Amino acid sequence: MTEVVGRDDLLLVTLDTLRFDVAAELAAAGRIPNLARHLPGGVWEKRHAPGSFTYASHQAIFAGFLPTPAAPGPHPRLFAARFAGSETTAARTFVFDTPDLVSGLADAGYRTVCIGGVGFFNKLGPLGSVLPGMFQESHWEPEFGVGSPTSFEGQVDLAEKVVAGLPYDQRLFLFVNVPSLHQPNWFHLPGATRDAGDSRETHAAALEYVDRHIGRLFAAASGRRRCFAIVCSDHGTAYGDDGFTGHRLGHDVVWTVPYAHFFLEAAA
How far apart are CA 94 and CA 58, in angstroms? Predict the structure, then answer.
């Protein structure tokens, strides 16, 4: 990352609430082709989330603590604040001297832009303003929220406008929090009803919906130059697993998340 930062644009996409098992099954079954073509080897990496719900996990991610590989470590990190005694800061780690990665990238000359999704990014009150407040530019609209069946399409439309409005020589760090997997997601599965509610199947249908539109986001992010992309979940969620429902709890389906990073080559 010491070579990437300052040279390439950066894209961070959190597929909020996406479970690892559902993501892995859909990739193996060929149901998310636009994502799978970018996954190293066509598969998601299994990782452990840094938090069990959106706010905690994103505070950690923005401090440089991305989901950790689900295997014994230590595991060198891509980004890290300068911190005495860190065992996961390596020679290739991009080290920043600010409280968070977002301001660290701003200091490195990046335009930092947040396109929010779930409530912790809605800027409707003090708590919903903390995370987007880290960015030089942040956006949220009701149509980007969890209740909108077309939330991700609206976010991608805005991302295209953001990129198009930047000077060519301005490096970009674009962050998109995708709310589509979060409850409610029943409306993404044909035939599902509000009364029946969300399920593992509607969760999977929401990921297929995201996959249908994420190609446009990748194209926009790499429209000016090569882009280094990170796509991951911030935490999973339970649908009755061992009696648990939801997240902000300690079940394995909440702590285990899909992760991938890769380069998006600039359009010729």
Answer: 18
CA 243, CA 51: separation in Å to the nearest integer? 21
Whole-prediction pTM: 0.96
Whose CA is closest to 154, among 77, 210, 95, 231? Answer: 210
Give the angle 163-164-166 at the CA atoms, nearest 5°: 70
Q: What are phi and psi of 121, to 5 degrees?
A: -120, 10
- The alpha helices in the chain, defined as continuous H runs, are 20-28, 33-36, 54-61, 101-107, 127-130, 151-164, 200-221, 252-255
pLDDT band of residue 267 (cuts 50, 70, 90) is confident
pLDDT tens string 243-260 = 999 999 999 999 999 999
Distance CA 249, CA 17 (A): 13
- Spatial separation of the C-alpha atoms in residues 94 and 85, rounded to whole Å: 16
Find the angle CA(204)-CA(208)-CA(210) to the nearest 5 degrees. 115
Q: How far is CA 203 from CA 14, 127, 192, 254, in A?
A: 15, 26, 11, 14
User: What's the gap between Cα 246 and its chain centre?
Assistant: 19
Question: Rounded to whole angstroms, how far apart are CA atoms 109 and 235?
Answer: 30
